[in-house]
Design a protein that fits this description.
The chain is mainly beta. Helices cover 2% and strands 52% of the residues.
Length: 170
């Protein structure tokens, strides 16, 4: 009945989006006991958070900024790269004040300014898997950030590995 998608931990709660059902489930972070659920319009693709809000992607060029208590939309941020809309924003993670979003069907992660929606650059993850390892896999779509260790974990659907990555700026 429900296809689980983006998930994020906030305080003592876990928020889990559904892809096409328009429901977000909220669980107790320690026990995983259901606490409540909210409805939203459209698809749920990715979910992350900053200090005040949840941030949700829906496959469009917009990121939705959400009130965590009510799951109501506070505002939308239109994401653009070189002045053009950037669609298919999938898995999300806040990293050092930027929103990292993998662009679905690619091996690229966009680094987005959360205030303006402008793409500051891309991280190219092509070649993480060898051609043999890539056989039978699907898209890159897993991003997790360990703030204490300042490292990313990257994976994809049916990928045989999870990669620990340290991003350096040129």
């Amino acid at each position: 009945e429900f296809f689980g998608e983006g998930i994020t931990a906030r305080g003592n709660e876990l928020f889990q989006l559904t892809w096409q059902s328009g429901v977000v489930f909220v669980y107790d972070r320690q026990t995983f006991a259901p606490r409540r659920q909210h409805r939203y319009v459209g698809e749920g693709w990715g979910l992350t958070q900053d200090k005040t809000s949840l941030i949700m992607s829906d496959g469009s060029e917009y990121l939705r900024v959400i009130d965590p208590a009510t799951f109501t939309e506070r505002r939308r941020v239109r994401v653009t790269a070189a002045g053009a809309p950037l669609r298919n924003l999938n898995e999300l993670e806040v990293v050092k004040g930027e929103i990292f979003a993998n662009v679905w069907q690619t091996d690229y992660v966009a680094r987005i300014d959360p205030g303006t929606g402008v793409v500051n650059g891309y991280i190219d993850f092509r070649g993480l898997l060898s051609p043999r390892e890539r056989d039978g896999t699907d898209v890159l779509n897993g991003i997790a950030y360990d703030e204490a260790g300042d490292r990313l974990f990257i994976t994809g659907k049916l990928w045989p590995k999870v990669f620990e990555v340290r991003v350096t700026r040129k």
